[in-house]
TrEMBL record:
Highest taxon of source: Bacteria
InterPro entries: HAD-like_sf (IPR036412), HAD-SF_hydro_IA (IPR006439), HAD_sf (IPR023214), PGP-like_dom2 (IPR023198)
Name assigned to this protein: HAD-IA family hydrolase
Gene Ontology terms, MF aspect: hydrolase activity
Organism: Streptomyces kurssanovii
């Protein structure tokens, strides 16, 4: 329980995920006012992020809310996943791979139903870290403190020995509130330097706690 640990986000950290404009293109194609897709699909997106809906049901809801036939639904979802998955942040992934055996490694990600299968197939994150905690599998999203508690419990580490790296300030603040160290991801150089300093400091052992 005194092991040093590094936990990372996926989208915007391990994946580079710029907006592709796919939603606006579909709204133009369907002659819908700007913002209509997210307005109609808001509850479905929410359900998918906490795993209260299956992929099949997502497809059914897309068809029902947007009036799409089966080929259109498949094309719509392909566009969604293309933006969601982005491209791999190769430099950071390689750095994290080099940490295997030096510390505990985990991922904590706000996700969508179907993400594990796709990210494992494309990027092999399941081979990069010891445990991946997805919001759609535990039914809890960051910045809920229970999400951070879940990943620490799964890795059997104390939060004070963990560094959490995320590109959202609210999630970084929540990790700190949960007792973890945290770094707001801006670029690979800063993240790698922060991880290195965390590993150099080592775990906070009971003796160090007592001695301050």
């Amino acid at each position: 329980m005194t092991a040093t640990c590094v936990i990372l986000d996926i989208g915007g950290v391990l994946e580079i995920t710029p907006e592709t404009g796919w939603v606006q293109r579909w709204e133009e194609r369907l002659e819908l006012p700007l913002g209509t897709v997210h307005e109609r699909m808001r509850d479905v997106w929410r359900a998918g992020s906490v795993g209260s809906i299956s992929e099949r049901e997502v497809h059914e809801q897309v068809a029902a809310h947007l009036g799409l036939d089966t080929p259109q639904v498949e094309a719509f979802m392909a566009d969604l996943w293309a933006e969601y998955l982005g491209t791999p942040n190769e430099e950071l992934i390689e750095y994290v791979r080099g940490l295997q055996g030096r510390c505990r490694l985990g991922i904590l990600s706000n996700s969508f139903v179907g993400a594990r299968e796709r990210e494992s197939a494309l990027y092999h994150f399941d081979e990069l870290v010891e445990q991946i905690v997805y919001s759609h599998e535990i039914g809890i999203e960051k910045p809920d403190l229970r999400a951070f508690e879940a990943v620490c419990a799964g890795l059997e580490v104390q939060p004070e020995n963990c560094l959490f790296v995320d590109d959202a300030a609210a999630n970084v603040e929540a990790a700190q509130a949960a007792g973890m160290h945290a770094h707001l991801f801006r670029d690979n150089t800063g993240a790698i330097a922060r991880i290195a300093s965390h590993l150099e400091a080592g775990p906070l052992t009971p003796a160090r706690v007592l001695l301050g």
